[in-house]
From TrEMBL:
Segments forming domain Major facilitator superfamily (MFS) profile: 6-405
Keywords per UniProt: Membrane, Transmembrane, Transmembrane helix
Taxonomic source organism: Reyranella humidisoli
Protein name: MFS transporter
Superkingdom, natural source: Bacteria
Sequence intervals crossing the membrane: 44-63, 75-94, 100-125, 132-154, 166-184, 216-240, 260-279, 291-311, 317-342, 349-369, 381-401
UniProt lineage: Bacteria, Pseudomonadati, Pseudomonadota, Alphaproteobacteria, Hyphomicrobiales
Pfam families with a match to the protein in the record: MFS_1 (PF07690)
């Protein structure tokens, strides 16, 4: 793998994550207008987006297996096409059924065009000494999408005064995801890794081996918390700010509460660009499992500070910046840790299983926020649940054993 082609994969992966996750994170902007148009509570919209994230996780191991077997480029391109179809259904929907269907298609598409398959390419093509930096830069694409696309969606929504033109604009942007996988071809590296391992480990054997390791199970459970946090904040923070009527007027610039919510999510993405790169680079010098424990503990402290501080535009932006620094630093650390322990042959599939834990958490974080709001009329309980879960995840990551898994040498195959 040449230096040039290695960086091509990094930047194509960066853009896939920028568009796919950025557009998906912008759905929180549409929570209130779509719920109002359908004349339902927030639970239906929240359930649709949460179901999308759950399906994204359930299918991720199968998408990972396809990428490990046939290559990441066709897998990611196919996922991008299904994603766009889901966006079209959502943009044209007029009832709850189409809302759910559109979200399901987006979830299926993202299962093949998100962190697992994209970072699997980077772990295969990047030189070992550059993997941490490459994974960190590529992971930051999801954060850049939040910083650029979510505020853009908020501005377009305010400009058009209607969610449909904004959804169509995002759909057109998503079309680019179908072309970008041309720079994510890793078939040669997959073949080489299989030859290097003797090609002896089957899919079933890899799964049995992984689930026999307590560390793998702890990673799956701990990643649940990351998904819960990301879905709750990404899906409900704009509505929370709008409910509280917190806008911003500074140096002649006026932001409505709805626009401030979009910019808050954008701030999370902006600060996570630096956070993802920094956390992943620290993974070369410190044990990744200890860094993950520290990160989740800090998240709980940031949530606690936001809950007890007086709510204002300043507290919203400070919260967004602090949380952003901790937002997706979990991704390069968790992904590279799985690759380090189990090796490259089945890394995309195994990361898909860990990611499924993340997306189960996303389901409960996204749907639970809407459910509790409809029941209680506020998000108070969700903030305290988020604090408690962060502490639990910090405790779960600490006992993980961060060592390469040793395997007996493969026996020669009979002629």
């Amino acid at each position: 793998m040449t230096q040039r082609s290695y960086w091509t994969a990094v930047w194509c992966g960066f853009l896939v994550l920028t568009i796919g996750l950025g557009v998906r994170q912008s759905f929180g902007i549409f929570l209130k207008p779509i719920s109002a148009e359908l004349n339902v509570g927030r639970e239906l919209f929240s359930f649709g987006t949460a179901l999308s994230m759950l399906l994204m996780g359930v299918i991720a191991p199968f998408s990972g297996r396809l990428a490990d077997r046939f290559g990441s480029a066709p897998t990611i391109a196919g996922g991008g096409a299904v994603y766009v179809l889901g966006m079209i259904v959502t943009a044209t929907m007029h009832d709850g059924f189409m809302l759910i269907l559109g979200n399901l298609l987006v979830g299926i598409g993202l299962s093949a065009a998100t962190f697992g398959p994209v970072l699997g390419v980077i772990l295969r093509v990047a030189p070992p000494a550059k993997q941490a930096l490459a994974v960190g830069i590529c992971s930051a694409g999801g954060s850049f999408g939040q910083f650029f696309i979510v505020p853009l969606a908020a501005v377009l929504q305010n400009y058009f005064g209607d969610w449909r033109p904004t959804m169509w604009a995002l759909t057109i942007l998503a079309l680019i995801m179908i072309v970008l996988p041309l720079g994510l071809n890793d078939r040669k590296e997959i073949a080489a890794s299989k030859r290097g391992s003797g090609g002896s480990q089957t899919t079933g054997a890899a799964l049995s081996e992984a689930f026999a390791q307590r560390s793998f199970v702890l990673l799956v459970i701990g990643y649940f918390v990351c998904g819960f946090h990301v879905a709750f904040v990404g899906g409900h923070l704009p509505a929370y700010i709008s409910d509280k009527g917190i806008g911003l007027s500074l140096f002649g610039v006026n932001l409505s509460p709805a626009e401030l919510g979009g910019w808050a999510i954008g701030m999370v993405g902006l600060f996570n660009i630096a956070g993802a790169i920094l956390w992943s680079s620290m993974g070369n010098r410190f044990k990744r499992k200890n860094l993950l424990s520290t990160l989740y503990l800090l998240r709980s402290l940031v949530f606690l500070g936001f809950v007890i501080a007086p709510l204002s535009a300043a507290s919203v932006l400070i919260f967004a910046a602090a949380l952003g620094f901790l937002w997706l630093g979990t991704v390069p650390l968790t992904t590279s840790l799985v690759g380090y322990i189990f090796g490259p042959v089945h890394v995309t599939m195994l990361n898909g299983i860990v990611f499924m834990g993340h997306q189960i958490g996303s389901f409960f974080g996204g749907w639970g926020g809407g459910r509790l709001f409809d029941l209680q009329g506020n998000y108070d309980m969700m903030w305290w649940i988020s604090i408690a879960l962060g502490l639990v995840s910090a405790a779960l990551h600490y006992p993980i054993v961060e060592e390469r898994l040793s395997r007996p040498a493969a026996m020669p195959q009979p002629a």
